[in-house]
Amino acid sequence: MEGCVDMKKQVCMKKSGGRLHDIQPVVSKLVNNGKVGEDNTLTYAGFEPSNLIVLLSQMITIGNAESLFDKEKIIPRVIVECISNERDDVDFFLSTMESVVREMQSIKEKEFYVLTGISLDVRSCLKKEWVINDCKITLSEGFDSMFDSRKEALESLSWCGSDDAYTSVVITVKSKTPKGAMFKGLRALNVFRALLCFDANNVQFIFGDNCWPINKVRLGRYQTVHKSSGEIVRSVLFHEKRFKLESSLPYFDESKSKVINNNIEHHLSSISDCKYSSLIGSALERCADALDEYDCDVAVVKLWGALESLVAYGDSNCERVPVRVAAVFGNDVFIKEWLYHIKDYRNRYVHEGECDQRSVHLAYKLGAVFKWVFIFFLRLKRDDVRGVLGLLDLSSKGLGHIELKESELRDARNLLVGKGG
């Protein structure tokens, strides 16, 4: 865990480069300037603490609990304990926060529903129920009446616009918290969307598409969490900032849907059998997020990161990404040069702000490359990712090198057999 010496601890200071964040000044200011009321409320006079609380939340991690709880809500509770005990040192702050997080994690999981939509013609003949990462994803024409509080809540917030023509999605999730349910449910849906878009997306740039993301199947405008009764949890309500109403929804007839269903089912089965499935799943989520972007430069940066997470796993630098990816395609020199060009373009965009309208072509190319790298990682049965990368490194050296190694291995085997005889 980042910044943690004791791996059993969840609450730790994050690292920035090679150094730990120095949270002492922030903790001291929050503790020494705060007052605790009779009802354990925390108040400040003379300055607004919210910025410091946000800063502190970015300087520490709570490990696996990040997806379950809001650090900004936990920190004031910890500061109250620090003030009550007249302690402003980092050790006491971290140990207290550790205790609070563990106490909060002791609650049992409950069933929640995550509701959203996807830009897919509801008449498509796709399979209507999928199970991904212990989440049941149900596609339908509309939401059941038990979820009417969703519509009421959105209307009360005056959030305009409608995506009623989209396919409705209900994700059944078990989680300790509503936030955790949203996080878990959307991750599963993004894996599903990534696999679906492998077949739904255009394989190359078509004139007129540069105003839209590459992904054809994107999230609806709103994502809500509901209790098992169907009642909405108003404190956890997401608005898709990149949403733009899609007027022409993708439609898949029975023949096309059969192919897509089979492909998705095959990929999901392969992922479940894979010994590095969490890495594969995370890369798929990042791919879905990248190709949802309207800005193709941002899409290239994000998609390159998704590719690196597989092909440069555990490496301190990513110089071998183009060579390893080319090995997936039989050491194709054109693929290798494409990847070197995309890598250089990505670096210039990030570090120098350089961009080019033709980046849409790079995004499409990188999306196609990612798909086949993903399939390669699934097809190749290895105990861990390093075994896959080792094979790619060996293959990248060419057939002549491999034949030489085979000859050396034969000679070595003969020596051993001769010695044994």
Characterize the structure shown:
The chain is α+β, with helices and mostly antiparallel strands. It folds into 3 domains: 12-105; 107-251, no CATH class; 274-421, no CATH class. It has 14 helices and 12 strands. It has helices at residues 24-32, 50-59, 71-84, 90-105, 148-156, 178-200, 254-273, 277-290, 296-311, 321-328, 333-352, 359-379, 385-396, 399-420; strands spanning 12-13, 15-16, 19-20, 34-36, 42-44, 60-61, 110-121, 129-132, 135-140, 166-175, 222-226, 232-239. The chain has a 6-stranded antiparallel sheet with strand order 8-9-10-7-11-12, sandwiched between helices. A two-stranded antiparallel ribbon has the order 1-6. The longest helix has 23 residues, at 178-200. The mean pLDDT is 91.
Biggest β-sheet strands, sense, barrel? 6 strands, antiparallel
Provide the helix percentage.
40-55%
- In whole angstroms, how far apart are the ends? 51 Å
Following the backbone from N to C, one meets helices and strands in this order, namely EEEHEEHEHHEEEHEHEEHHHHHHHH
| Count of discrete alpha- or pi-helical segments spanning 4 or more residues | 14
Low-confidence stretches: none
Query: Looking across the biggest beta sheet, what order are the strands in?
Result: 8-9-10-7-11-12
- What spatial form do the alpha-carbon principal axes imply? globular
Instruction: Give me the secondary-structure category.
Output: alpha+beta
Overall strand count:
12
Give the averaged pLDDT, no decimals. Answer: 91
Number of separate structural domains: 3
Using the CA coordinates, give the radius of gyration. 25 Å
DSSP strand content: 5-15%
